[in-house]
């Protein structure tokens, strides 16, 4: 099982062979150097006239912002596909499932997303999570979505009598430093994913 916790255009992936056994952990970057990591929030906002007084703002047309979002999206999908394919090769029998943080609702069109002052603050994060989900589904992985506030309870139910903090500490010792909040969240999500039986699609890959 793989648990993911994203921040900006990067994501921490923690892969577990069992709820208490670490297989691998890595941090991946979903955007090429030189590309904006927050095209909805930055360039999209500038195109809409927001934040123009900030020292890093620049003049961007709506057409330019929309084109940039699509370029970043394509890059994220390509990078996600590459990284998850490499990870699938490392897992004995392949990866069965990935746990991703639940996405907030985003309008269907990019223009509507960047026009909404609230949505543009999280639309980039949703874009990256969707890129990971799409890549995982292409590989035959099952995608499960977790709520950050409830994932610890779900992991505790899987572990039974073993305290979650104890398990996370043990996994951290296996992983070595750094073992930070995002690593722990990704590991917790991976543990929680063991609660569900494998789908027939995942079983067929083994």
SSE arrangement:
Blueprint: E1 2-7, E2 10-18, E3 21-29, H1 40-47, H2 62-90, E4 97-101, H3 110-115, H4 123-138, E5 142-146, H5 151-159, H6 164-175, H7 181-193, H8 200-204
Parallel strand pairs: 1-4, 4-5
Antiparallel strand pairs: 1-2, 2-3
Q: What keywords describe this structure?
A:
Nucleotidyltransferase, domain 5, alpha/beta, single chain, 8 helices, 5-stranded mixed sheet
Description:
Helix 1 packs antiparallel against helix 2. The chain is elongated. It is built from 8 helices and 5 strands; from the N terminus they run E-E-E-H-H-E-H-H-E-H-H-H-H. By secondary structure, the protein is of the alpha/beta class. Strands 3-2-1-4-5 form a 5-stranded mixed beta sheet, sandwiched between helices.
What is the CATH C-level name? Alpha Beta
Tell how many strands the DSSP assignment holds: 5
Give the termini separation: 14 Å
**Overall spatial form:** elongated
Which structural category do the helix and sheet elements fall into?
alpha/beta
List SSEs in N-to-C order: EEEHHEHHEHHHH
Low-confidence stretches: none
């Amino acid at each position: 099982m793989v648990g993911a916790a994203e921040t900006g255009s990067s994501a921490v992936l923690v892969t577990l062979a069992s709820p208490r056994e670490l297989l691998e952990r890595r941090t991946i970057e979903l955007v090429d150097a030189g590309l904006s990591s927050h095209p909805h929030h930055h360039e999209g906002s500038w195109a809409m006239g927001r934040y123009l007084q900030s020292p890093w703002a620049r003049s961007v047309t709506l057409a330019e912002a929309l084109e940039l979002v699509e370029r970043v999206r394509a890059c994220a999908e390509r990078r996600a596909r590459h990284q998850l394919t490499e990870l699938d090769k490392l897992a004995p029998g392949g990866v069965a499932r990935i746990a991703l943080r639940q996405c907030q609702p985003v309008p269907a069109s990019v223009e509507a997303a960047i026009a909404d002052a609230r949505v543009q603050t999280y639309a980039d994060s949703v874009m990256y999570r969707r890129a990971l989900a799409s890549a995982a589904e292409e590989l035959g992985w099952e995608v499960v979505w977790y709520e950050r506030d409830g994932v610890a309870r779900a992991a505790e139910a899987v572990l039974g009598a073993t305290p979650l903090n104890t398990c996370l500490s043990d996994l951290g010792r296996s992983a070595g430093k750094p073992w930070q909040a995002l690593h722990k969240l990704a590991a917790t999500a991976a543990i929680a994913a063991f609660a569900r039986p494998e789908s027939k699609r995942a079983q067929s890959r083994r």
